[in-house]
Amino acid sequence: MKAKRPFKNAIAKRDLAIDGSRSKVSVEIGKPFVGDRCYTCPIRIKFGRRILHHEIHGVDAFQSLELALKIIPTYLRHSEGLPLGRMYAFEKGDDMGFPEVYV
User: Fold this and answer.
1) Angle at the Cα of 58 (from 51 to 33), degrees rounded to 5?
2) H helix intervals, 1-103
3) Rounded distance, CA 33 to CA 41, Å?
4) SS3 helix, strand, coil % of the chain, rounded to 5?
5) Confidence band for 4, pLDDT divided at 50, 70 and 90
6) Separation of alpha carbons 40 and 95, rounded Å
7) Which residues lie across from 30 on neighbouring strands?
8) Residue 6 confidence (pLDDT)
9) CB neighbours of 5 closer than 8 A, spacing ≥ 6?
10) Res. 81 pLDDT band, cuts 50 70 90
11) SS3 69
12) How much is the pTM?
């Protein structure tokens, strides 16, 4: 869900390198908080002027954080405006440090 509130209280950040570029894609997770009748974990992905800021909801703080970690790879692989297929965390060709989870 698109964010209703400003992003704050980052608890984790990872910068992704881009093959063939000096630019970076920044992925941040915010501290879960009690939102509108549920817990909310904010996530933000920044690339140049492009900012994706979403709020992931769960029944408690743990679930909202868990779901945020599970949705990040989907955003990184399918969001328009990102350098799709060129981002990596540690080595070219890796899973960006955010492996997709299949259940």
Assistant:
1) 65
2) 61-78
3) 7
4) 15, 40, 40
5) confident
6) 26
7) 10
8) 86
9) 42, 55
10) very high
11) helix
12) 0.88
97: which 2 tokens?
């440090």
Q: Strand pairing partners for 45?
A: 27, 52
Report helix, strand or coil for 70: helix
Asked whether residue 1 carries a pLDDT value surpassing 70, the answer given is no
Q: Which two tokens stand for residue 21?
A: 């570029």
Per DSSP, the three-state class of 60 is: coil
- Is pLDDT larger for residue 100 or for residue 68? 68
Hey, what are 66's tokens?
Answer: 């868990």
**pLDDT averaged over every residue in the chain:** 91
Tokens of 78: 């399918």
Give the 3-state secondary structure of residue 27: strand
**Radius of gyration over alpha carbons of the chain, in Å?**
14
